[in-house]
Amino acid sequence: MSKFVYLFSEAQNLSKDLLGGKGFGLVQMSSMGLNVPPGFIVTTNACKEYYLHGIEFISELKVQILEALKKLEDLTHKHLYKLEDKSKNFPLFLSARSGAKISMPGMMDTILNIGINSTSSKILSEKMGTSEFADNIHLRFMKMFLDVCAGISNSDSSNAIDRYDSLDEKLGYMKKCYKEKISHVFPEDPYEQLYLAIEGVFKSWNNERAIYYRKVNNIPDDIGTAVTVQTMVFGNLDKNSGTGVAFSRNPVSGKKEVFGEYLINAQGEDVVAGIKTPSPISQLKIDMPNVYDEFVNCANILENYFNDMQDMEFTIEKGKLYILQTRSGKRSPYASVKIALDLLNEGKVSEQSALNMVSPKQIQSLLHSGFDEKSLKEAKLLSRGLPASPGAAVGKVVFDSETAKKMHDDGIKVILVRNETSAEDIEGMASSEGILTVHGGMTSHAAVVARGMGKCCVSGCEEITIDENSFVSRGIKVNFGDFISIDGTSGNVYLGKVDVSSSSFSSDILEFLKIADKHKKISVMSNADNPKSVSQAISMGALGIGLCRTEHMFFESDRINFMREMIISRDKESRIKALDKLFQFQKKDFMGMFEAVKGLPLTIRLLDPPLHEFLPESDQEISKISLDLGVSERVIREVSSSLKEFNPMMGHRGCRLLISYPEIAEMQVRAIIESAIEVSKKNNWNIIPEIMVPLIGDVKEIRFLKKIIVETANNVINKNNFEINYKIGTMIEVPRAAFMADKIAKEVDFFSFGTNDLTQMTFGFSRDDSQKFLKDYYENKIYLFDPFSTIDSQGVGELMKIAIKLGRSANKGLKIGVCGEHAGDPESIKFFKTLDIDYVSCSPFRVPVARLSSAVD
Amino acid sequence: MSKFVYLFSEAQNLSKDLLGGKGFGLVQMSSMGLNVPPGFIVTTNACKEYYLHGIEFISELKVQILEALKKLEDLTHKHLYKLEDKSKNFPLFLSARSGAKISMPGMMDTILNIGINSTSSKILSEKMGTSEFADNIHLRFMKMFLDVCAGISNSDSSNAIDRYDSLDEKLGYMKKCYKEKISHVFPEDPYEQLYLAIEGVFKSWNNERAIYYRKVNNIPDDIGTAVTVQTMVFGNLDKNSGTGVAFSRNPVSGKKEVFGEYLINAQGEDVVAGIKTPSPISQLKIDMPNVYDEFVNCANILENYFNDMQDMEFTIEKGKLYILQTRSGKRSPYASVKIALDLLNEGKVSEQSALNMVSPKQIQSLLHSGFDEKSLKEAKLLSRGLPASPGAAVGKVVFDSETAKKMHDDGIKVILVRNETSAEDIEGMASSEGILTVHGGMTSHAAVVARGMGKCCVSGCEEITIDENSFVSRGIKVNFGDFISIDGTSGNVYLGKVDVSSSSFSSDILEFLKIADKHKKISVMSNADNPKSVSQAISMGALGIGLCRTEHMFFESDRINFMREMIISRDKESRIKALDKLFQFQKKDFMGMFEAVKGLPLTIRLLDPPLHEFLPESDQEISKISLDLGVSERVIREVSSSLKEFNPMMGHRGCRLLISYPEIAEMQVRAIIESAIEVSKKNNWNIIPEIMVPLIGDVKEIRFLKKIIVETANNVINKNNFEINYKIGTMIEVPRAAFMADKIAKEVDFFSFGTNDLTQMTFGFSRDDSQKFLKDYYENKIYLFDPFSTIDSQGVGELMKIAIKLGRSANKGLKIGVCGEHAGDPESIKFFKTLDIDYVSCSPFRVPVARLSSAVD
Questions:
Q1: Would you call A787 exposed, middle or buried from its count of C-beta atoms within 10 A (0-12, 13-18, 19+)?
Q2: Among this protein's residues, is B612 annotated catalytic?
């Protein structure tokens, strides 16, 4: 049998894959000479074997566990007490903790105080001179063991247990429950307890919330968890003991200072679970200055070693500091940026490493983060808690996670209000705009998870009292479904809806994004349809406009009727007449956009949607239009019905429309070139407009339209006697275009993948219609993500590869980009970086995310 | 300059590509020692050069033409007469005829009698002792020349010319017309006439009808025509002269006999144009027995040389036989088969060559070819003409091609009734069910073209008189738009509509198709949804059913309401209740089909269309259903509106439906397996049902459904305690499936390409919606054919290749087929044969076409 069990001292050369994050940290710390309670690790390979061979494997594993245990007992001069043990040694107590290669905080199980039974309890009580402590850890152990190894949850059993007075009665009751549930007698033997605990941790790898967490965080299901078995140290022994959680830097502000909380005379779980509100770590400096200094020293050593902000758990047992865990600390989006920049400036990390420390999604959340000043002044302050995770959130009050999820799925924005949160609340938190808790500090479950999610959170709002379907604060009763607004930056809670202002970036973030730009793998452009959006996009750092959808302009009230006039026209002549009127508007639009884009590229797509989208539907509208245009209702209805399509997505749109009505393309090209010339002249700029043709599926389509574009453009150029260059490109958005890409590439200067349509056609389902059945797909794990949000690399991606390969082979200078929804999605950009493309073009507000996505490794 | 002009005697080693079909035949015949009027050929390369360089090229070409002409004059001891020529030689007259590599009968231009002018006319009149002949050919020449070289059509000028009495006046008028049209004086110089004639023939390559003909016959536009310049021989010299067209076998019946027509004392164009109704060739045997024998001998020589039935033009000049042209003869579909079989039996061609002699499209037309006997008895006989092209056709009378085309496009069936047809009528003929002509024989334009098209035709129905918008026959007036029925096998014409019976194949054709099956490259299965269709498909030679669409069964009146009950069900329980009722019907359907398919494979596709297709739309229907089902109208409307989709083609259908409602798949699988077991037991057959899942785009979809299918099937098998095998397959019809094909192939036994949907998704347009704009595409030559009729090898075909390669790589035993519309299209099958597929599955009536398509090279 291979080796599956390693003492910390034996594991120095083993990988995190094998030891899990927690075990790896302990081994590192141990080898650095930090004071770590000794222990051993059952590797992730053991977990995998367990899932292959089950309980049989565990009994084979026992030999290795016993061997490691023997060494541990020798090392600590303590030992596990069997029931009939007569020795008087100090009893050994162990913890068994989960720990995968990738951190999944709180998702899997832990059992503390393994080794307690009537014999060891007796010895412990004798040693301590009181049975109080022994009874306390005995009860804790039993509760955890029943929860992990028998699935009897704390909340189920707590009330029942509380009915009994004596410890013996309580223990007796719990053992009875165990036997009823499991059909085995409760194991008094501490070795049995350990084996079962290890198995219990293995099993917790596949509990529901762990599976869900892996799914949302894209963690593979087959990497398994290690089990760290470690000597217990006790923070609840006396007033010289305590336990705490602290970060090497401030996880909210990013400031360089030890930040955390501790509880005197308590066990670690009390802090993490948020059951007691702890003191800030500065209190430790007052209570035990030497221990505090030692801890700060440890924090520095660890941060320097790992070159990242550390999240550490520690316990003080009778004045002696033990570090129980260290890991890279979760932090608020803002702190992520701040810490990365500081570490870079301190010379601890490279630019690329600093960039990799911030997830693109975090950047997104830094945008909408404040309440509008004016609106705030009128707002009614309900309470003030701890500013646990920054941001501003508005939503309806809900009191449980299930309801939060349900309402969110129905499109309702909610704020989750809880006494405290636990791992069961993960989905509910993800579904909420923000989280408000009554108990718990800055490192409570709610705070840590919310920061990780980039969600706004106010914790420890103790003046609130929750009563089933309402809460009361400062005398005001807030019911389920009422609106509140919470500010995770100040900790304030307001009644009703407060306006959120779309704040701009702070200078730190701008600096960080500039570093990102230096390391970009692909350029980031933006989609914008009007001068205001263009300016917004440029201010967000877009290098130009990759997609201007001209159809949006036709919907504006001053021109929609000319558009309708054009559509209702029965012959080319009257169509051209209507188009001439639209021309004036288009030209004005384009001039505004050319001004706003300040000489950066501007890619204008010719008319794309089917014409019936521009026609009115209701009787009332039709009669209005009839009056406005002086055309009979009958004619309008006739045109409308002649344009009706069974599947408009696959109908008369895009280049197909322009082929049927080349005069539309002519008008648009004329407007583009004339406006580019005028703005060039005025500003003495050298504008090179880019004209993009949608929905091309055959080279003859683009040849046909290119001829029209070139003739029209050159006419305008000659008439104005002003030399201007322009580019012609095409969307690649129907699968066939990928196979024609070499031929098409010879005709154009650029490709822009319209990944929305390409996804629709490749999957054969439309974005609108698929949402109905995709929920069945998620439920049955057929798809794990929405292919309209994150690019499908296997299908759509393959088509992209074909198109890029063929396109580049035929036209070396071809510029290639992506302008679908996916262009602003970090996961998708990750994939795009593996392709040979030049740019992505996303909505203005996603530009910063895309900039960072483009730069991270 | 390269050599572009070759005497017949110089051209023996040149290809048909260069000489054109007509020239090639003349060169061959000339070298075989047959009596061919001497001449030379201007090659197709010259035509291409002309289209590159225009008139300049012609002037360069003159040197070579003059050189060839000199040799020709030496050879014939005749010469072209310039105006002032004083010699007394017999004048040389030439013809200039078109001839491309691929025959395009009547599409391009010909000029006869080049060389006639006042001088040569005078000499000729002197030699003949009368000016009648000279005047005749002079007038003919002028008309043709004006038509070809000045675009002054015969019909335009004929009436005007007839106003003049004397030849000089007529010629004068025509020269005036020429000058007005062309702004050049009419060329009296015969050399000029020749150059212009050659140029005229080149130009006729791109006249409208030639372009159209190439388009419908898939002939490339860039191969060009050769010009054959040949010494004129005259069939209109005297009673010992004549001209004719004859086939080496009967082109209607295929019988081995010389078959044709001739006219005494006439020029060839008279026969071809159908202006005069000629005598059968048997008359030649009586008139000139020696010439007849010589001709029959020639026909045999030529047929043996070319190993195919020949279509020959001949002229007898003063008792001497000249062969003017030979080519592979067009024949009726039935004759195609008969001749191919006879040539095979005569040992002249191999089986494969015999198969290649029949086009798959011809087989199609052999199916609907007779009038129903009973209906015939009651029919009123209007007239009887020549049985020019077999078949039975019913339609409304139209008198011009344009109207025929227009009505056909509007979905109206028409019979084109003309005095005679000409090349301008091609489109109109193609748009008609059948053609009826007053004049013209079995080899008239109408007859030849109709046979080529496989259209029914009755020609030479001389008792009919057409008067603009009606015709009269046997005292009955038939108006435009009235129905008539024509029988191309008997020559009968009936008043009104006679029922057409779908006749079965004759034994010849069955024998021929059996030979085809021996040489098949892919198997032919059929699509059928009920026992009757299954039997029909098997009788047509299908090797099984490749696609049974189960949804058609649910639309029948006795079950549609249970289907609706199922759809309206709000929970799984009531859905299952409704499905249980449908189960009984499904099982009965499947039992009938398993009986009908007699142990051959039967592939059943699970439910495919979106559920809303089954719901009623009109208020009236809704209230009826509401009563029938005892469900409120509101509920029906609610369900209906919840099922509405923006793009149903890309909505909740196919496997997506089955994933949402697995109970539908369960019911269907249960019905399939139970019925297969019962029919197996009853007949002692070993039925292996094939279950096909539509619209798969991801391996997890098929895994999910496969599990349900296997569990359900095995349950039924165990319950019945009867061992039965079954196969599971999937449609490949969304582009993504192609890229997933390796993974999918591991889960299934077979793939069936649904090329209809695959075409829709690949092009990004739906079959229904695209017809509106595809006409603009055809007009602008962006697409040359409908991708829903003939497979798009460049796009859809590439996806198929990817799917096949990946599928085969993962599953060696994978069976692969095609079951879209394309499965019955000869052009598409040609492409499918280049892929590694096992079968096509088409509608029963297309099975014979597919069988032959699968076999031809």
A1: buried
A2: no
CB contact under 8 A, B761 and A766: no
- Pairwise CA distance, residues A266 & B726, whole Å: 66
Residue A595 CA, distance from chain mean position: 37
| Minimal Cβ distance to A772: which of B652, B735, B798 | B652
Beta bridge mates, A396: A414, A483
Q: What is the mean pLDDT of each run of 10 residues along chain B (857 residues)?
A: 93 95 93 95 96 90 95 94 89 95 88 94 91 90 92 75 87 92 92 95 92 85 95 91 94 92 83 74 94 96 94 94 91 91 96 94 74 86 88 93 92 93 84 92 80 83 90 94 92 92 77 96 94 90 95 82 90 92 94 96 96 87 88 89 88 95 97 97 96 97 97 97 96 98 98 96 91 88 90 97 98 96 93 97 90 95
Of A13, A24, A10, A65, the C-alpha closest to A42 is A65
Say if residue B650 is exposed, middle or buried (CB neighbours under 10 Å; 0-12, 13-18, 19+). Answer: buried
The backbone torsions φ and ψ at residue B545, rounded to the nearest 5 degrees and listed phi first, read: -105, 120
Under 8 Å CB-to-CB from A386, ≥6 apart: which residues? A441, A442, A447, A458, A459, A460, A461, A491
Burial zone of A254 (CB within 10 Å; 0-12 exposed, 13-18 middle, 19+ buried)? buried
What kind and span of H or E run contains A549? strand A545-549
Per-position DSSP letters for B126-154, written without gaps between them: HHHT-SHHHHHHHHHHHHHHHHHHH---H
Residue A490 to residue A434: CA distance in whole angstroms: 14
**CB contacts, 8 Å: B792 with chain A:** 736
DSSP-derived 3-state class of residue B106: coil
- Helix (H) or strand (E) holding B392, with range, is strand B392-398
CA A352 to chain centroid = 21
Is B341 in a helix, a strand, or coil?
helix
- Coil, strand or helix: which one is B109? coil
B652 contacts A649? CB cut-off 8 A: no
A24-47 b/e (C-beta count within 10 Å ≥ 16 → b): bbbbbbbeeebebbebbbbbbebb
Cβ(B802)–Cβ(B816) below 8 Å: no
Burial of residue A290 (number of CB atoms within 10 Å: 0-12, 13-18, 19+): exposed
User: Chain A residue with minimal CA distance to B801?
Assistant: A739
Handedness of CA A176, A177, A183, A184 (dihedral sign): negative
Query: Is A607 within 8 Å of chain B by CB?
Result: no
Alpha-carbon distance of B122 to B134, in angstroms, equals 8
Interface predicted TM-score (ipTM): 0.78
CA dihedral for A217, A220, A224, A227, sign (positive or negative) = negative
Active-site positions of A read 445, 819
A179 reaches B (C-beta below 8 A) = no
- Where does A644-734 have alpha helices with state H? 655-660, 662-683, 699-720
Cα B344 to Cα A99, A732, B356, B519, B852, distances in angstroms: 81, 53, 12, 14, 16
CB contact under 8 Å between B700 and A781, yes or no, is yes
B612 contacts on A by Cβ (under 8 Å) = none
Radius of gyration (C-alpha) of chain B in whole angstroms:
33
Amino acid identity at B354? A
Cα–Cα distance list, A390 to A168, A425, B400 (Å): 47, 19, 82
Shortest distance between the Cα of A738 and any Cα of chain B, in A, equals 8
- Separation between Cα atoms, residue B847 and residue B366, nearest integer Å: 13
Partner-chain contact A761 B762, CB within 8 Å? yes
Q: For A227-257, how does the pLDDT look when each residue is reduced to its tens digit (9 = 90+)? A: 999 999 999 888 999 999 999 999 988 999 9
